[in-house]
Amino acid sequence: VLVLLCMLTATVTSLCGGYLMAPIIDHLTLAIKPDAVITMSPFEKIADDVLTQITSGQAVQDWIASGTIQAVSAYVAVALIVLGIVYLISVICTYLQARLMMSVSLRVIENIRNDLFRKMQGLPVRYYDGHPTGELMSRYTNDIDNIDTMINNSLVGLISGLITLIGTFVFMITTSWVLTLITVAFIPIF
User: Fold this and answer.
1) Mean pLDDT for the chain overall
2) 0.90 exceeded by the pTM?
């Protein structure tokens, strides 16, 4: 459960980190060209609201009032700090997930090896006469290593990829459903 929570948190923070870039770009665009027309998706609006709320805090307002920094620069600075925190959470969760999966993988492989050893102890001697020992050991070692790789890497990649795919699809639909349909239509062609 903790592994899935870490995996979900790491994936969601990575997806949200990309969405935090849009309000930064929008505010810089408006600072350069004040008459620019900016449209925001619902997720971009949420990110902008959060960043605006933080920027309107007393500490940031005092910083702006002191003349040290302009309002747009303060917004960008706060946004970059929040972006850094989001990506730091993603990195920490990815690290924890890898450590936990390694622990789970080692326990599972230990149980499989113990079960195989008990099974081999119960086999009759004539079974070993018909099968070379090196072949048996090689087969067990390679098969167990493949299971270990699957548990440690492939399973994590599959679940993380699925969460990323669903999250990306949701973000695409909320940004532009027309472009999402075009993209989905062209995926089979590519």
Assistant:
1) 85
2) no
